[in-house]
Amino acid sequence: MQQRALIVGVSGVIGTALAEQLNTDGWQVLGLSRGRTAVPAGCTSLTADLTDAASVKQALKDVKVDKVFFSVWARQENEKENIRVNGAMVRNVIDALGEGLKGGHVALVTGLKHYLGPFDAYGKGAVPVTPFREEQGRQPVDNFYYAQEDEVFAGAEKYGYTWSVHRPHTIIGFALGNAMNMGQTLAVYASLCKQTGQPFIFPGSKTQWEGVTDMTDAHLLAQQLEWAATSPAAQDQDFNVVNGDVFRWKWMWGEIASYFGIEAAPYPEEMQPLDGRMDAAPDQWKAIAHQFDLKEDDISRLVSWWHTDADLGRPMEVITDISKSRKAGFTGYQCTRDAFITLFDKLKAEKLIPA
User: Fold this and answer.
1) Would you call 145 a catalytic residue per the annotation?
2) Active-site residue (options: 64, 67, 102, 113)
3) What is the Cα–Cα distance from 281 to 292, expressed in whole angstroms?
4) What is the pTM for the complete model shown?
5) What pLDDT digit, counting tens, does each position of 122-162 carry?
6) Strand 212-213 vs strand 247-248: parallel, antiparallel, or unpaired?
7) Any catalytic annotation for residue 64?
8) Which of 70, 168, 252, 322 fits a 20 to 30 Å CA distance from 148?
């Protein structure tokens, strides 16, 4: 029988890659979102205000699915509001599907802030020893990831489905209007540097520049999500997920610069975050978009200066252990440099950055 999936947050970086993966493998895919961005090709679009239980219930009243995948969040002014709003979004979907989930599977994507703490307390507590491992558990701080997990766990008890939780590192992938998209942000930043003559300066910390790190390609994450939803070995488990290679930014920065035909600036005497430094970028990008006939001249639809600064500005090493999923049977791998290049090539092909 054809499997039916509901992707909550289908138009984001993760949702887009997952929809492509499942469509390729013959699934019937429904996508639930706020309706601000077009859903990937081959998906049935459902629209609702995810924070409104009645709106979600109406959108899902006739929906029957085997698997549900959550990759959704809405940034709020503080972590207590993040918990209230983002926990409710998960609960609203689960309760709307209700008994129809019995015997099915619900997957939730969170991330390494499970170990680092949320933006309000980012890395301020006792960060676990790296590489991060699933058995290290939760930090003693408020965190909306934990609230979302708890809603999934409570739903499993109530409705009788299996679950999986997936914790990627920074994700490399394609999507417009996404608040957490470092690869796309760096592509636009490099393009701005090339066209305006600005130096291509690494915006993060010396620790990140010098240290070893890893990342997660959105398509690799999609593969793990599909595997976990269909593998008995993955039921009721939490999994880290990264590409499987490691690198240092002082090397990767030169690789990205080389792709765009520019020079990588030496590490600056002090950190130079993008947020604030790129105040002139909106007008500069409009001129570049007009010159190269690009599809998007609103730079805010392409970049996330603040999130890229947060990731690259970490004052501690961040690296992930993926032994648990490998031992359970997931052996996917993706070269991170190749993931960046694939994304950059797609952005050029889609006329979102200059060719």
Assistant:
1) yes
2) 113
3) 16
4) 0.94
5) 656 677 889 999 999 999 889 999 999 999 999 999 999 99
6) antiparallel
7) no
8) 322
